[in-house]
Structures are given as C-alpha cells and as structure tokens.
C-alpha cells in the first residue's frame, strides 16, 4: 500500500527528533501498560512493513499470529519481555500458530545535552545482524538469546550496559567464526538496516521499547505496549486464535 512520503520522517530528521524526545523526558523504555489493547490505530497497517523473508522470524513464517517486536538490547524491560516471548514460543511456536518477528529500535542517539540513554544499543543491534548474515536465522536467534541472557540492565551502576568485549565471545559461543564476525561488526555494514527499522517504528508512532504489534490473517494490527507479562500475552494470543478460527 502506498504511503504519503511527505508525512514520513527521514533518518537524519529521526535522529534529531529522537534526541529531542529523550531531552523532553518521554519514557523510552516501557514497563507493562495497564491500557486495554487497541485494535489497529489509523495508519498503523500502512506504516509497519509487512513481514517478509527479509525479517528474522522465529517459528512458522505462515503462522496465524505474527508478533512483531521492536526492541532495544540495552533496555531492561526488553530483557524481561524477551523471556516472556520465549515462553510464548515454547507453547505456540511448537504448534506453528505464532511466529515471533524481531526488529530493532535502539535508543542510542544523543539528546540536546549530549546524553545517550543506551550508548551501545546500536552496535549491539548490528552484532545481531552480523550473526544472522554469517550463520543464518538459527544463529541470529542463538546470538540474540545469549545476549539478552547475559546483558545487564543499563543503570547508574552499569551505565554502559553490556561490556562490548562480550560481543565476539557470544559469536564464538554460538559457533560463528570470530574473525568474520569482528570484520562484519567493524565495517558498519548493517547500520543502515538498523536505523531504517528504528525510523520505521518512529513513523508508526512507537515511542518506547519493547513495543509489539500482533498481526492476524484478517488484517488486524494490534499494538501491545511494554513488557507485558506472560499471562497477558497468552490471554491476547488465545483470544485472537479463537477469533481467527
């Protein structure tokens, strides 16, 4: 479906706006929201890129329900929600009813005062892409799972988050060639992809991580904001599966 290009942000503009939003104290990382789940806000289905074989998909690509997650590897709520999604996939991934689609939303641009919320999130997102390019979809998910397992939350005690020396160690652990991984990461070849997914999310109105969109066969795009607990995500998935029968 065509989009009105004049209404969309470009990447340089998005970087400026991202900094302004952080400077304005809007919360980027989200704990669970108490809001009711909304059904397809106007334009959301137009702004969110359709799931394709270019995505990193865990589970059945033809699943009834696709959960598109925009995530930041340095976000503590994303770390929590990653565990929730792994539990969801332990149930619905095995039946082929749900697929998990991972997209990047790293908050790593400086605000007007030069403050950066998650300084390493952009490079860590590139590391995930390097893992996928070198080892395919399985290595992408193995690398992603391990990174979320070991990364500390960005706090006053650990303002930089994960020690970046761990990135090649994770590559080795999941069976990637470390020299090839380091070469990929230092080249910055996936920065444009990471930034374009960040831009896509911003144009769709995403303001924090984790932010997820559940896509159904009947064309509903259902936002699910914040690190919703397993029970809540399961409740929504069960209702949608029942509705789509």
What's the short story on this structure?
The chain has 245 residues and is an alpha+beta fold.
Describe the protein's topology:
Elements: H1 11-23, H2 44-47, E1 56-59, E2 65-71, H3 76-95, E3 98-104, H4 121-150, H5 166-173, H6 178-187, H7 191-203, E4 211-215, E5 221-225, H8 230-243
Parallel strand pairs: 2-3
Antiparallel strand pairs: 1-3, 2-4, 4-5
Outline the structure in words.
The chain is an alpha+beta fold and 245 residues long. It has a single domain (29-243), classed as 3-Layer(aba) Sandwich (Glutaredoxin), CATH 3.40.30. 46% of the residues lie in helices and 11% in strands. The chain has helices at 11-23, 44-47, 76-95, 121-150, 166-173, 178-187, 191-203, 230-243, and strands at residues 56-59, 65-71, 98-104, 211-215, 221-225. Strand 2 (65-71), helix 3 (76-95) and strand 3 (98-104) form a beta-alpha-beta unit. Helix 4 packs antiparallel against helix 6 (178-187). The longest helix is centred in the middle third of the chain and has 30 residues, at 121-150.
Q: Which CATH class applies here?
A: Alpha Beta
What is the second-level CATH architecture? Answer: 3-Layer(aba) Sandwich
Q: How is the largest sheet built, in terms of strand order?
A: 1-3-2-4-5
Shape: globular
Which oligomerization state do the chains in this entry correspond to? single chain
Task: Give the strand content.
Answer: 5-15%
CATH topology (fold) name: Glutaredoxin
CATH homologous superfamily, by name?
Glutaredoxin
Show unreliable segments.
1-29, 33-42
Instruction: Quote the average pLDDT.
Output: 84
Radius of gyration: 17 Å
Whole-number total of structural domains: 1
What is the number of E strands? Answer: 5
Order of helices and strands: HHEEHEHHHHEEH
The largest sheet, given as strand count, sense and whether it forms a barrel, is: 5 strands, mixed
Give the helix level as a range of percent: 40-55%
Distance between the termini: 26 Å
Structural class: alpha+beta
């Amino acid at each position: 479906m065509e989009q009105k290009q004049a209404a969309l942000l470009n990447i340089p503009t998005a970087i400026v706006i991202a900094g302004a939003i952080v400077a304005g104290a809007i919360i980027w990382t989200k704990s669970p929201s108490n809001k009711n789940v909304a059904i397809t806000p106007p334009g959301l289905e137009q702004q969110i890129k359709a799931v394709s074989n270019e995505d990193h998909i865990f589970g059945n690509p033809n699943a009834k329900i696709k959960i598109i997650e925009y995530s930041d590897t340095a976000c503590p709520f994303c770390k929590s929600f990653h565990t929730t999604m792994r539990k969801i996939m332990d149930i619905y991934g095995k039946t082929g009813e749900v697929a998990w689609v991972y997209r990047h939303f790293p908050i790593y641009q400086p605000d007007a005062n030069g403050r950066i919320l998650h300084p390493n999130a952009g490079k860590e997102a590139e590391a995930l892409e390097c893992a996928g390019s070198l080892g395919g979809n399985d290595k992408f998910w193995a690398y992603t799972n391990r990174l979320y397992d070991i990364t500390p939350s960005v706090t006053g005690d650990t303002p930089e988050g994960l020690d970046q020396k761990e990135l090649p160690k994770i590559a080795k652990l999941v069976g990637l060639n470390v020299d090839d991984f380091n070469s990929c990461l230092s080249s910055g070849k996936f920065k444009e992809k990471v930034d374009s997914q960040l831009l896509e999310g911003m144009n769709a109105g995403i303001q924090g991580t984790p932010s997820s969109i559940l896509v159904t066969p009947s064309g509903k795009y259902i936002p699910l904001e914040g690190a919703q607990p397993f029970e809540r995500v399961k409740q929504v998935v069960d209702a949608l599966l029942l509705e789509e029968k």
